[in-house]
């Protein structure tokens, strides 16, 4: 049994990962300031500290075997209008965490990164060796942290894995998406199905894709969580490993809308809207590195299963 600190563990992905660590027999401490997370998102059995990642040195000590770092702001639009918030929190918080880890001699880190580091890709599926040219401060802040981690691995022997997520969805163990504001397609569609929104906007129907709508790679949050446990085992001193996490298959906006209609049994009205600036036609991951280095394989790749789990959570949330 190992002991882990999970920063941002009151959020969606962090909460599911914390739960899976507990289910695997580990001790878990969640550190979260609840600025975007929820106290009820901390799984039962985890120690909870309400605090900021920038103050991690107050609580981190040599009894911890590693850190899983999820604490970050992640709204793309907000990062454009308030970039300083993202530099201070995402980059400044991560820099303070790395310093606290060095002081406490905790030498294993799994970092929650993002496909937004790639920006508008030149090809698909996207590999980790492709250029990382983020198009907004959120993606740039995550890329900056990846560079910091790489330097810490070289200079201080940190064993680190960055996991670059594509589109995470679904629910597990009573944990699902409840962002405020919500910006992700599947939970927005489910809010329409529940009558909490009038319709869903489809941004652009003239992309060079089979049905004219954007194609994205969706991954079940439980599969994502498994990758974090495997990453802890695969981390090697002095190495910073970067792995994409995705199904390797894309689903169009139209396919997602139709799947939600089928799963929920609701009509889900839609309206056509202009393309959003910077929206690539296709974003699909190559997860070959995760398969080869982590031994990871998504076990829940079907879109219907992802939507069904998310639908069960959404109905329970608004019951």
Number of strands: 14
* General form: globular
Low-pLDDT residue spans: none
Beta strand % = 15-25%
Helix and strand run: EHEEEHHEHEEHEEEHEEHEEHH
Strand order of the largest sheet: 3-2-1-4-5-6-11
State mean pLDDT (0 to 100 scale). 96
Number of helices: 9
Structural class label: alpha/beta
Distance between the termini: 38 Å
How would you sum up the major sheet?
A: 7 strands, parallel
Radius of gyration: 19 Å
Helix content: 25-40%
Q: What characteristics describe this protein?
A:
319 residues; alpha/beta; 3-stranded mixed beta sheet; globular
Structure description:
It is a single chain. This protein has 319 residues and is of the alpha/beta class. Helix content is 37%, strand content 18%. It has nine helices and 14 strands. The chain has helices at residues 12-23, 76-81, 83-104, 137-156, 185-193, 221-234, 253-264, 288-294, 303-317; strands spanning 3-7, 27-32, 47-50, 66-69, 108-114, 159-165, 167-169, 200-203, 215-216, 218-220, 240-245, 251-252, 270-273, 282-283. A seven-stranded parallel sheet has the order 3-2-1-4-5-6-11, with helices on both faces. Helix 4 links the parallel strand 5 and strand 6 (159-165). It is globular.
Overview in brief:
By secondary structure, the chain is an alpha/beta fold. The protein contains nine helices and 14 strands.
Task: Please write out the topology.
Elements: E1 3-7, H1 12-23, E2 27-32, E3 47-50, E4 66-69, H2 76-81, H3 83-104, E5 108-114, H4 137-156, E6 159-165, E7 167-169, H5 185-193, E8 200-203, E9 215-216, E10 218-220, H6 221-234, E11 240-245, E12 251-252, H7 253-264, E13 270-273, E14 282-283, H8 288-294, H9 303-317
Parallel strand pairs: 1-2, 1-4, 2-3, 4-5, 5-6, 6-11, 7-10, 8-13, 9-14
Antiparallel strand pairs: 9-12
């Amino acid at each position: 049994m190992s002991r882990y600190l999970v920063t941002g563990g009151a959020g969606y992905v962090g909460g599911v990962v914390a739960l899976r660590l507990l289910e695997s027999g580990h001790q878990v401490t969640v550190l979260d300031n609840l600025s975007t997370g929820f106290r009820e998102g901390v799984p039962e059995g985890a120690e909870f500290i309400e605090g900021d990642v920038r103050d991690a040195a107050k609580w981190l000590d040599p009894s911890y075997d590693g850190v899983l770092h999820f604490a970050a702001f992640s709204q793309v639009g907000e990062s454009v209008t308030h970039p300083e918030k993202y530099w201070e929190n995402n980059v400044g918080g991560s820099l303070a965490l790395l310093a606290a880890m060095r002081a406490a001699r905790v030498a294993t880190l799994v970092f929650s990164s993002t496909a937004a580091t790639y920006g508008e890709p030149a090809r698909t599926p996207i590999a980790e060796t492709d250029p990382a040219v983020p198009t907004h401060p959120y993606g740039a802040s995550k890329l900056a942290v990846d560079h910091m981690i790489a330097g810490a691995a070289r200079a201080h022997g940190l064993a680190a894995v960055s996991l670059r997520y594509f589109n995470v969805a679904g629910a597990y163990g009573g944990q699902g998406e409840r962002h405020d504001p919500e910006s992700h397609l599947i939970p927005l569609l489910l809010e329409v199905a529940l009558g909490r929104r009038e319709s869903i906007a489809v941004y652009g129907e003239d992309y060079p894709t089979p049905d004219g709508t954007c194609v994205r790679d969706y991954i079940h949050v439980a599969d994502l969580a498994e990758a974090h446990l495997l990453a802890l085992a695969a981390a090697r001193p002095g190495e910073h490993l970067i792995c994409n996490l995705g199904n390797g298959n894309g689903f169009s906006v139209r396919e997602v809308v139709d799947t939600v209609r089928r799963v929920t049994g609701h009509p889900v009205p839609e309206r056509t809207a202009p393309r959003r600036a910077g929206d690539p036609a296709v974003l699909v991951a190559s997860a070959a590195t995760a398969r080869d280095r982590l031994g990871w394989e998504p076990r829940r790749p079907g879109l219907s299963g992802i939507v069904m789990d998310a639908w069960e959570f959404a109905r329970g949330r608004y019951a």
